[in-house]
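ok posting inputs for the iron/sulfur cluster job
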Amino acid sequence: MDVLGLTSDEFAQRLQSRRARREVMLKYAAVYRRDAQDMDDARADLPEIGKTIVDAETVKFTLQVGGGLETESVIIPMPHTGGGFSRTLCVSSQVGCAMGCGFCETAQMGLLRNLSAAEIVAQWFAARHRIENTIDGGHGFQIKNIVFMGMGEPTENLDAVLHSIRILTDHYGASIASSNITISTVGRVAGIQKIAEFAGQEGFHRLHLALSLNAPNDEIRSQIMPINKSEPIADIVAAVRGYPEVAGPTCIEYVLIPGVNDSMEHCDQVCALLKDVRCSLNIIPYNPRRNSPWPAPSEESVVAFIARAIANKQFCKRRGTKGRCAMAACGQLGSEAIRARKFVQVHSGVGVQS
Ligand code: SF4
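and the output
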């Protein structure tokens, strides 16, 4: 039985007529924690690992999920302020994406299909147990945080995403704290409300939310993110305000694109928008996608934008650009092989990314 799509309770229910509950739970734990594959009725049916690319300490890998399609995931070291580091796994929720954000590599693929909860969990399993660790030696990486920021828009496949979070937080399995999991969305109001409802349940109160905002007003956002035409900024900011406070500040992602959204006036507009929202503004210097109409921003413009936000009393920080060389940074996941199967025109509008 493939256990990657099941919580330990669901697994026990399948087997409880044959085994005592405790024994069943230990078997589940053995698969998740020790990669034990020698039991008749429990194993991880892991899709085959495709490419693995190591760039400095960032590891990008693919899993082959059938029909020539692949997931893409990235293991990213996150330095701690006091020294040391932990590893974050960025997972995909879909193969490709239908959202068409103008600055995004994945958008060029269009949507090929949703991933199942098991295929999402398989990305953690491969990272934890199977990816060859040429950095530390041995196999697998200790993963502390999980972010849904890979290929796909999580609210477009929310049932599978939320079920995968139930599995990843299972105490007998991966046992990732919900406070260490972040769902990043372009901001579908109904999706944010559904995530908020889920976070209201016992055990998920601290599930983090990230909103990919990327623009100071509807005019610019609609040019670079087509979703904005049906879900305007005022509505999504209101939905973010309704997200449970106990989860901590919402991360507002802002990809800084030269000539598109990077002026001081834009900064003032963003800060005004976010006034009274419990959030952290995360500035992400644009990582040019292939055939990008925009270059990366200059260091001076990034520093100036952040300084202006801080002067506006907006809590603001800069996200690092680890993985740029491996095309593993924000908005740059996407397989060349898959794109060759299907190419869609992406909207470049004013000229930006998410
Ligand atoms: S930025 Fe995210 S939502 Fe937008 S097209 Fe890319 S993967 Fe999809």
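notes: The radius of gyration is 20 Å. The pocket of iron/sulfur cluster is lined by residues 97, 99-101, 104, 106-107, 151-153, 186, 331, 354 (CB under 6 Å).
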